[in-house]
Design brief:
The chain is mainly α. It has a domain of 37 residues. Helices cover 92% and strands 0% of the residues. The protein contains 3 helices and no strands. The protein is rod-shaped. The N and C termini lie far apart (65 Å). The mean pLDDT is 72.
């Protein structure tokens, strides 16, 4: 009985790790997409000044 309990616990933990990893990857993808759109907006001349004012460290001087 004990061995079965340990095995099921391990399986649950493994599945939780997989779920956590997939959510992390999804978050990273979303973040990357956001950064891409923001930097693309920053590249357009109209937006550039505003972005430099908000966060000059992000884009460098």
């Amino acid at each position: 009985m004990m061995a079965i309990g340990v095995l099921t616990q391990r399986n649950v933990r493994a599945s939780e790790d997989v779920i956590g990893a997939t959510t992390m990857i999804a978050k990273m993808i979303v973040k990357g997409a956001l950064i891409k759109t923001v930097s693309r907006n920053a590249l357009s001349k109209h937006h550039r000044r505003r972005f430099f004012k908000i966060n000059p460290l992000l884009y460098g001087n």
